[in-house]
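Hi R.,

As promised on Friday, here is the backbone we talked about, encoded as structure tokens. Could you run it through your design pipeline when you get a chance and send me back a sequence?
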């Protein structure tokens, strides 16, 4: 097709030349379409002709009807080097047809088959072959098929990739924003209800508490592994920071918020209790509770801050690097001590160091000349509970833990418990009161704790005393007035204070959420000096 160009109006202006010159390889769009149609017609004709010949051959020779026809060899263009050029005038499809026809003749060894419409080449009827060459060609075709499947080509056709709508991203962002707004409104409404029932912390602490409760509810209900968004209590802190850090995102399930909101509203909608005449036993119980409340009020409250000299020492301890303190076999370093800064979870090192201090104080107070008489206690490390829960008494070899200790001669056994590596609670075996006790700052159901500790007591008694343990008169103790945390990160501090108070024989606890800032700094001073403060 000759290109006709319009002459320029001015002879000085250049004449536009053709963008692509017509060559043997570049024949133009119409010639390429004509060549493609010719190739398609040739391919259809060859397919029909070969199918007819195969049908005729199978009807004449039934023995070959059960055998599968051999696969064709790989076309020549797959074996050509990259720098080889195609023959002028032939398309890629034509070259493939030529190579396939040649391969069929070579495989079957038949040179007398009817001629093909492709000049200079012949096609033959497929005959079964078991030669090594045929196996190699089959393996080659398998390789090509697998390669095409990995590239997403199925049946010779690459699947069409769907594309998102142009406003899909904007729509998703709008949905996320609406959900976040609705969630914030639910949290705000629930926060106001909680404030009217005695909640004292700020809104940020309440949000962390709601997130923490939702995560623990999922772990307890479905027995799932901890979410990756939950900070590992046993993980080392990379860089100690003073900024407020929450352990997980604020993405709480709206269903959980609605359940909590309905529960809070239900407490306000309940009708007032009916008047009743108390019995004599109830009057005695009410008088005892009143006496306990008066005694609690007369008991001195914890201060809001340490003395100035002790507070200065705490700041110096926080600036110190390396090992901070040692007691017995336990030690803490600067990264461990930074866990006692606000909004941080405590790790095993802090929990075990504090327990070693309790145990050392109990052993030192066995002296009759001691000023204060402490209980005879034993403290199990944080690794006791995973052994008991996951491996059991025999497989976990827990008998070796008390090889030199008779726990049945102690007043109380203190056990820190890590639930699903996401929450700290305290447990105790109180031989004086004949109670198995559990203290949880989230007030969750801990029936499995009682069951596991009862099983441990029986197994330990059978191992050491050679007879079952007598549980007559023993009770499970889970007090309802246990101090509760109002955020998602103070569970470790509550647990340490539970166990320390129990080691002194106290029946009640005189600390609450408002004392956590003071208690964290006090624990830094106590751990840094490896001893307890004599007075608050």
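Update: got your reply. Pasting your designed sequence below so it's all in one thread:
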């Amino acid at each position: 097709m000759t290109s006709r160009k319009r002459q320029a109006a001015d002879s000085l202006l250049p004449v536009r030349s053709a963008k692509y010159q017509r060559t043997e390889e570049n024949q133009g769009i119409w010639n390429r379409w004509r060549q493609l149609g010719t190739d398609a017609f040739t391919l259809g004709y060859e397919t029909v002709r070969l199918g007819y010949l195969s049908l005729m051959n199978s009807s004449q020779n039934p023995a070959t009807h059960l055998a599968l026809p051999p696969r064709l060899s790989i076309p020549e263009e797959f074996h050509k080097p990259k720098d080889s050029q195609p023959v002028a005038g032939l398309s890629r499809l034509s070259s493939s047809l030529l190579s396939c026809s040649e391969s069929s003749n070579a495989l079957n060894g038949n040179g007398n088959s009817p001629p093909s419409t492709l000049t200079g080449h012949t096609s033959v009827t497929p005959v079964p072959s078991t030669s090594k060459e045929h196996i190699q060609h089959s393996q080659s075709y398998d390789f090509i098929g697998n390669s095409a499947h990995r590239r997403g080509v199925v049946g010779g056709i690459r699947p069409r990739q769907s594309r998102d709508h142009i406003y899909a991203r904007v729509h998703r962002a709008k949905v996320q924003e609406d959900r976040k707004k609705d969630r914030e409104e639910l949290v705000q409404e629930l926060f106001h209800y909680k404030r009217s029932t005695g909640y004292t912390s700020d809104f940020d602490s309440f949000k962390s508490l709601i997130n923490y409760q939702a995560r623990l509810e999922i772990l307890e209900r479905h027995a799932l592994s901890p979410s990756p968004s939950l900070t590992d209590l046993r993980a080392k802190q990379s860089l100690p920071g003073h900024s407020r850090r929450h352990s997980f995102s604020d993405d709480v399930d709206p269903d959980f918020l609605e359940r909590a909101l309905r529960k809070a509203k239900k407490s306000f909608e309940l009708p007032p209790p009916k008047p009743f005449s108390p019995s004599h036993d109830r009057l005695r119980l009410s008088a005892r509770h009143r006496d306990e409340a008066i005694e609690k009020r007369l008991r001195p409250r914890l201060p809001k801050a340490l003395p100035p000299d002790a507070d200065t020492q705490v700041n110096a301890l926080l600036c110190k690097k390396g090992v901070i303190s040692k007691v017995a076999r336990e030690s803490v370093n600067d990264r461990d001590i930074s866990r006692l800064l606000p909004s941080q979870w405590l790790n095993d090192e802090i929990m075990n160091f504090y327990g070693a201090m309790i145990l050392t104080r109990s052993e030192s107070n066995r002296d009759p000349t001691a000023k204060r008489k402490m209980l005879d206690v034993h403290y199990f490390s944080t690794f006791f509970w995973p052994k008991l829960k996951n491996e059991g008494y025999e497989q976990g070899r827990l008998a070796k833990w008390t090889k030199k200790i008779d726990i049945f001669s102690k007043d109380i056994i203190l056990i820190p418990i890590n639930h699903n590596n996401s929450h700290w609670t305290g447990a105790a075996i109180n031989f004086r009161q004949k109670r198995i006790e559990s203290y949880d700052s989230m007030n969750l159901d801990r029936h499995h704790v009682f069951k596991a500790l009862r099983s441990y007591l029986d197994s330990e008694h059978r191992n050491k005393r050679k007879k079952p343990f007598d549980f007559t008169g023993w009770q499970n103790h889970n007090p309802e007035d246990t101090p509760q945390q109002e955020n998602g990160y103070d569970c470790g501090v509550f647990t340490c204070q539970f166990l320390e108070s129990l080691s002194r024989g106290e029946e009640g606890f005189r600390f609450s959420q408002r004392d956590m800032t003071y208690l964290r700094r006090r624990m830094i001073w106590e751990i840094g000096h490896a001893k307890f403060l004599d007075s608050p």
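One thing I noticed while checking it: The beta strands are 323-327, 330-333, 377-379, 412-419, 423-430, 435-439, 475-477.

Thanks again,
M.
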